[in-house]
Every structure is written in structure tokens, then in C-alpha cells.
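Long-time lurker, first post. I've been practising inverse folding by hand and with some scripts of my own, and I keep getting stuck on stretches where the C-alpha cells seem ambiguous. Below is the full C-alpha cell string for one chain I'm working on. Before anyone asks, I'm not after the true native sequence, just a reasonable design that respects the backbone. If someone could post their per-position residues I'd love to compare against what I wrote down in my notebook.
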């Protein structure tokens, strides 16, 4: 078995729903990051890219017909570069990175561009095809932006509650208070704003042509727990805790990671940022989807041969503050090592792009902080979780 590495990572700024990126097609966003990742590997002959693998959760509109292959063609890569699109909902682009690492480790590839894309703004309205011609009555349009649509009535009703109601059930089960959620959310905004001010994200970002967006659009630098405490709950009018302020917003964006073998250093002219040391996938009851990263990360650590006491940094995708806190509590880790450059509550959560985003953030944060081991994990709707362990390859990592 070979060894796989993350060599580089790029992404667009994440735009808010209906915001600066809402006029840009998802296949164009995907082509942008794939092309930029190729250009940044200055010694790379594009024909030597073995595969492009992109994640995408919706695939119901302009991101249809295998958006990864569309990205290869739109980015003017050689037509001989193959590409595939994977869908594991919120975990799609992390799944793409994990698939790329497996291809490298079994010797099927030396250079793979993995990542993902989502335009939640441009997700279309759809309707079911009529079961008979000349149907009488009105047909309902269904939004494909987020959550269940065109559901199967055979599914257990407790599994098909909204993501927000599922989070309310999860926080009840694990005793996560509204106060902690708001504090966690405010911290996400404050740390994300500081990371941008400090220049942490500067060399990871590719601007979208024709769009004047230089930072993630959803960050509110002046956010405080006190301000968030004044927001109304969304999913439960009585006794609820989940608000628009302590949940991730709807977003648009794309991300990419260059995954390669040891030989990829010679092929690309890049040096690896981190070794991909362990992978984990887990599943549980759909209504408790937010807790699935707990077991996924534990499995990834076991594969890497380390324990939580070795971990210096964690990137946990913040679908909701409540589920993030439940995971951190279950791992029994220092919350201060989690999302030190902000998380999805502030940065945004364009479903198919978030997994690769947290991998890139983790790899660069390990370098910046001189930490050796890190975990990136993400919860996934319908009750799944994914995680990866990265090892900083710098000689001074501790």
C-alpha cells in the first residue's frame, strides 16, 4: 500500500443564499476551483491528473449530468481526464477526498483533484411526474435547496423530521442548553473574522470572476452571545433553542484538495501539507444525524493508530451549534482546539463543498500552529458521519 497526502487546497469565498454568488452557476464554480488547483501545481502536466472527484448534494439543476466531468471540460483540462461525482449529502466532498486517498493508496492514481460544489441559491423547484396523463388538479412545486423532498411514505415518520427538529431532539437527549449554543455560535463568527484579518485564508481563496466577494459572506464579526440570545427559535415555538443564529446558513461555494502519492511531489512541484492517516464512516438513527461524527472520528483515530489525547486540532463542520457541542462533549476534548479559525455557522455550509473545506482548513491550521495530528469530521443528513485524520508532515510538528 502506498501513502496518500493532501498537497494543497483551494476554495471560493462562500456566498450567502441569494447573495454575491447566486448569479454564478455551480458547474462554473466547480470549474473555477478545479482549474485553480491545477494551475497552483506549477509543474503538473494536466494530462497527468488521474481523476477528478467532486461531491454534490443536490444535483437537481445546473449541477446535473456529473458536475465533476462538466468542471473538467469547463476548466479546459484535457478531455482525457476522467471525473466522477459523489453524493453523500453534507459529507459529499469529504467523501470525495477519502475516495481519492484510497485510489492513491492502492496504486490506482498518483494525482487526484477532489472537492465539491453547491449552489443552494440556484437549487431548482421540482415537481413529481404525474402518474397519468391529463391529471386533474394542481401540482405542488418542491424546493430542492435543503432537506427532504418527494419523500417515500413508507419511511418511518420519526426519521423524516426536519433537520432543525432533529437537532432539537438531539440537544434534548444530550442536554445542550441554548446559552451554550449561542456562545459557540458567537465564537465561530469571532474566530472566522480574526482568521480573515490575520490573513489565514488569503492563500486558500480563489476569487469568482465578475463578483466582488473577497471574504465569506455570512461572517458577522460583531456577533455576541448576548445578541444571539435575542433571536427567536425557528423550529419549535415553545421550548425550542435552535435559531438562525446558532445554525449554519444556506450558502454557495466550491472547494478542492489536491490528493497525491509520494511521487506526486515530483509531478506537481508541491510538497505535501499533511498525510491522510485514517478514515472513518459511521451511521445511526436519521433523526440523530448530528451525533454520527462521534463514531466516525473514533473509527478514523483507531485506523490512524492514535487517540484523542494525541490530537492538537479538530475541524468539525458546524451544521448546528447543538450537534457540534454534543459531539465535542462525547469526545471529551478541550473545546478550544475545535474550529480555531471559525466554523460553518460563520463561514457557511454549501453542502457539497464543506467537507473539502474543513480538510483544507485543518491541513493549513496544523502547519500554522505546529501541531502534528488533526481530525476533520462532518455530520450528514439521514444519519451518517465521516471523518479523516491528518498528520502534519512538517519536521517540527509536535
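-- Answer (accepted) --
I ran through it position by position. Result:
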Amino acid at each position: 500500500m502506498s501513502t496518500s497526502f493532501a498537497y494543497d487546497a483551494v476554495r471560493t469565498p462562500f456566498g450567502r443564499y441569494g447573495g454575491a454568488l447566486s448569479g454564478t452557476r455551480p458547474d462554473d464554480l466547480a470549474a473555477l476551483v478545479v482549474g485553480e488547483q491545477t494551475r497552483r501545481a506549477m509543474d503538473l502536466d494536466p494530462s497527468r491528473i488521474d481523476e477528478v472527484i467532486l461531491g454534490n448534494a443536490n444535483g437537481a439543476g445546473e449541477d446535473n449530468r456529473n458536475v465533476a466531468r462538466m468542471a473538467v471540460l469547463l476548466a479546459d483540462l484535457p478531455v482525457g481526464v476522467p471525473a466522477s461525482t459523489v453524493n453523500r449529502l453534507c459529507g459529499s466532498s469529504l467523501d470525495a477526498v477519502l475516495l481519492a486517498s484510497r485510489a492513491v493508496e492502492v496504486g490506482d492514481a498518483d494525482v487526484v483533484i477532489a472537492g465539491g460544489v453547491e449552489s443552494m441559491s440556484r437549487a431548482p423547484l421540482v415537481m413529481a411526474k404525474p402518474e397519468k396523463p391529463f391529471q386533474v388538479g394542481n401540482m405542488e412545486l418542491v424546493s430542492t435547496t435543503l432537506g427532504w423532498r418527494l419523500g417515500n411514505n413508507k419511511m418511518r415518520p420519526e426519521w423524516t423530521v426536519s433537520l432543525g427538529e432533529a437537532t432539537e431532539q438531539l440537544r434534548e437527549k444530550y442536554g445542550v442548553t441554548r446559552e451554550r449554543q449561542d456562545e459557540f455560535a458567537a465564537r465561530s463568527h469571532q474566530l472566522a473574522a480574526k482568521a480573515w484579518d490575520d490573513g489565514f485564508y488569503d492563500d486558500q481563496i480563489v476569487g469568482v470572476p465578475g463578483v466582488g466577494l473577497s471574504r465569506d459572506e455570512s461572517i458577522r464579526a460583531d456577533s455576541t452571545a448576548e445578541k444571539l440570545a435575542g433571536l427567536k427559535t425557528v423550529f419549535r415555538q415553545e421550548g425550542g433553542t435552535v435559531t438562525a443564529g446558532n445554525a449554519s446558513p444556506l450558502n454557495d461555494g466550491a472547494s478542492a484538495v489536491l490528493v497525491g502519492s509520494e511521487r506526486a511531489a515530483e509531478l506537481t512541484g508541491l510538497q505535501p501539507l499533511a498525510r491522510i492517516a485514517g478514515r472513518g464512516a459511521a451511521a445511526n438513527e436519521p433523526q440523530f444525524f448530528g451525533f454520527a461524527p462521534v463514531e466516525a472520528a473514533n473509527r478514523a483515530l483507531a485506523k490512524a493508530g492514535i487517540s484523542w489525547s494525541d490530537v492538537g486540532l479538530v475541524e468539525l463542520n458546524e451544521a448546528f451549534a447543538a450537534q457540534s457541542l454534543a459531539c465535542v462533549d462525547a469526545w471529551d476534548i478541550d473545546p478550544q482546539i475545535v474550529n480555531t479559525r471559525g466554523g460553518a455557522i460563520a463561514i457557511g455550509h454549501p453542502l457539497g463543498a464543506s467537507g473539502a473545506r474543513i480538510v483544507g482548513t485543518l491541513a493549513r491550521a496544523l502547519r500554522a500552529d505546529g501541531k502534528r495530528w488533526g481530525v476533520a469530521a462532518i455530520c450528514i443528513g439521514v444519519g451518517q458521519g465521516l471523518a479523516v485524520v491528518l498528520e502534519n508532515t512538517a519536521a517540527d510538528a509536535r
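A couple of notes from the structure itself: The longest helix spans residues 178-197. The CA atoms of residues 59 and 65 lie 8 Å apart. Happy to go over any region you disagree with.
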